[in-house]
Write a structure and sequence with these properties.
- By secondary structure, the protein is an alpha/beta fold.
- It has 2 domains: 224 residues, Rossmann fold (3-Layer(aba) Sandwich), CATH 3.40.50.700; 93 residues, Cytochrome-c3 Hydrogenase, Chain A, domain 2 (Irregular), CATH 4.10.480.
- Helix content is 33%, strand content 8%.
- It has 15 helices and 9 strands.
- It has a 5-stranded parallel sheet with strand order 2-1-3-7-9, with helices on both faces. A two-stranded antiparallel ribbon has the order 4-8. It has a two-stranded antiparallel ribbon with strand order 5-6.
- A hairpin with a 2-residue loop joins strand 5 and strand 6.
- Helix 2 crosses helix 3.
- The longest helix has 24 residues.
- The chain is globular.
- The structure holds iron/sulfur cluster (SF4).
- The site of iron/sulfur cluster has 14 residues, from helix 12.
Length: 398
């Protein structure tokens, strides 16, 4: 684990990441957070880079509760920068059970030291839901219920990020009948700034942009009523979906594998929850692969970033739609077309014929300057082709 007491600029100067790669990373941050962050409110990626280099690397302690580790996986799948750079150059990841080598008593000691060394200054990241049922006995860490560990470590944190849908509000483990009493971090911890970054998985750049905004300016981004960063959750997937034109035109896939599905038509009738789901998946794909997101591969959105949609509503139930038609400023998809009046066609034909005839006559009477002279030259009178003339063959024809 690396020391928190240095700066991103110092860390980058160790040479593990090239300037080009760092600028590419800053560009991706600007794309992930085009507004709403002080960090990315710049004209150029180089300006973001300058701001980042001045910042102290934030200490991050990452706890796992009832999770599948998919949120960590999505972080590992960022290829720009790769995970080594991510961990050791941008943030100081001082405790992470999946990535650290220590286990057992050594891991417990690492956690205690990480908290003591950054008391009141570290960012606590929680992955997975917290089981409250049966006094928290469904999950224990070193003999302590997970809910107690959360209270303990969270009490020392400067800010808390609940990453993924499970940590945000329970996710899959909280689906009915929710035997473990799984719930989200913000229903347990009080008196701490908490950010929810839901998603199954969440977008890694949303997480990085949030942490780095905190590292540079000591503040968290503006949040919506579900504590999600507005810069990433301000619009619905439906707003920017590449299949939106099909929705507006009434072209739907009716069954998986039918002609509409194969042609890439709208998935609304297959249960797509894009119209009621706030997230940036339609513009910020995953794993650095174009179209790597559910709708991009033909699967309806399940609404995993919404507290009351994924794992609550049946998968194939139709989504609620608050804007069934495109804004009035958009051109119509199916413009109304009237029938053609034969008299109008005749009039247009007469005008077109008159214009064509006049053009032809004018072209005969007004030949281009020099055209007649050129047309009367013989082959032998024409100028030679470019380049030196062949020696001893002055009469050679081109
Ligand atoms: S319903 Fe789903 S697939 Fe159709 S346009 Fe909206 S988000 Fe895209």
């Amino acid at each position: 684990m690396s020391r928190a007491a240095d700066y991103i600029g110092q860390s980058l100067s160790r040479g593990r990441v090239s300037r080009r790669s760092f600028l590419e990373f800053c560009t991706k941050l600007m794309v992930a957070a085009p507004f709403g962050l002080t960090l990315t409110d710049r004209a150029r990626a180089s300006e973001v880079a300058v701001e980042l280099k001045k910042a102290r690397r934030p200490s991050v302690i990452w706890l796992h509760f009832q999770d599948c580790t998919g949120c960590t996986e999505t972080l590992l799948r960022t290829s720009q920068p790769d995970v080594g750079t991510l961990i050791f150059d941008l943030i100081s990841l001082d405790y992470h059970e999946t990535l650290m080598a220590a286990s057992g008593a050594d891991a417990e000691r690492a956690l205690t030291e990480a908290v003591a060394g950054n008391d009141g200054k570290f960012v606590l990241v929680v992955e997975g839901s917290v089981p409250e049922g049966e006094s928290g006995q469904y999950m224990t860490l070193a003999g302590r219920p997970a809910v107690e560990v959360l209270h303990d470590i969270g009490g020392h944190a400067a800010a808390v990020i609940a990453i993924g849908s499970c940590a945000s509000w329970g996710g899959i483990p909280s689906a009915e009948p929710n035997p473990t009493g799984a719930t989200g971090v913000d229903s347990i911890l009080r008196g701490k700034p908490i950010v929810n970054i839901p998603g199954c998985p969440p977008n890694p750049y949303t997480f990085l942009a949030t942490v780095l905004e905190y590292a540079v300016y000591g503040k968290l981004p503006a949040l919506d009523e579900e504590r999600r960063p507005r810069f990433a959750f301000d619009r619905t997937i439906h707003d920017h979906c590449p299949r939106r034109a099909h929705f507006d035109a009434g072209r739907f896939a009716e069954k998986f594998g039918d002609e509409g599905h194969r042609k890439g038509h709208c998935l609304y009738r297959l249960g797509c929850k894009g119209p009621e789901t706030h997230a940036g998946c339609s513009t910020r794909h995953f794993n650095e692969v174009v179209d790597a997101w559910p709708i991009g591969i033909g699967a309806p959105c399940v609404g995993c970033t919404e507290k009351h949609v994924a794992f609550r509503k049946p998968m194939f139930e139709l989504a609620a739609i608050d804007r069934a038609v495109p804004p009035t400023t958009y051109p119509p998809v199916n413009a109304p077309q009237g029938s053609i009046d034969p008299r109008a066609t005749g009039a247009v034909g007469l005008v077109a014929g008159a214009v064509a005839g006049a053009t032809y006559i004018a072209s005969r009477r007004l030949p281009m300057a020099g055209a007649s002279e050129r047309s009367q030259r013989t082959w032998s009178q024409r100028p030679p082709p470019p380049g030196p003339a062949p020696k001893g063959d002055e009469e050679q024809k081109p």
